[in-house]
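Shape is hard to put into words, and the shape of a protein is harder than most. The fold becomes a row of whole numbers, each drawn from a learned catalogue of backbone shapes. The outcome of that step, for a single protein, is printed below.
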Amino acid sequence: MLQVQECGISGLLEIQPAFFTDERGYFFEAYNQAEFAKIGICEPFVQDNQSLSRKGTLRGLHFQTRHPQGKLVRAVSGRVYDVAVDLRCDSATFGKYYGVILDSSRQNMLFIPKGFAHGFLALTAQCIQSYKCTDFYDPKGEGGLMWNDETIGIDWKAVAPEIEPLLSEKDGKHPKFDPMGQYFDLKGKWIRNN
């Protein structure tokens, strides 16, 4: 059984799986197609990704244009501040973000539909982040937004005031968010011409 919390942005869901612990450790189902279909997540996942990040690593804000991906994200080890930005231009929450701490001790997850930018900040010494994706990675369709864009206004410091983010060169050069721009439609299809 899954507990689901809506996040104030259509389609974006925080998910808590049933988690069983005893003196030996724990057990939970990270994914069950039938259970996820009951909460409206029916699109098949075709690729699993995993990243290892040291404390302070900030990855994002990423999206794909030619093959947009829905993602089911969780922290396998450690804690991350995970953020999704709604880039569906006809959405009532276009340009708004939602952030949640994904914690391996809880194994909570975030489902991010197509049409969002995604990023995270590693909060513990080592973080392993896992994401199931609804489409294949396409290096020619990479897109991104500046991680600290003032129009979006993600408050990374509120979660980790002591952390100075570590960025890749590429993530430090993404463009700013254009509030008048065309990114994705409501179904998560890329519509911008550039």
About this structure: The CA atoms of residues 182 and 193 lie 8 Å apart. DSSP finds two helices and 13 strands in the chain. The helical segments are 33-38, 156-159. The two ends are 43 Å apart (CA to CA).
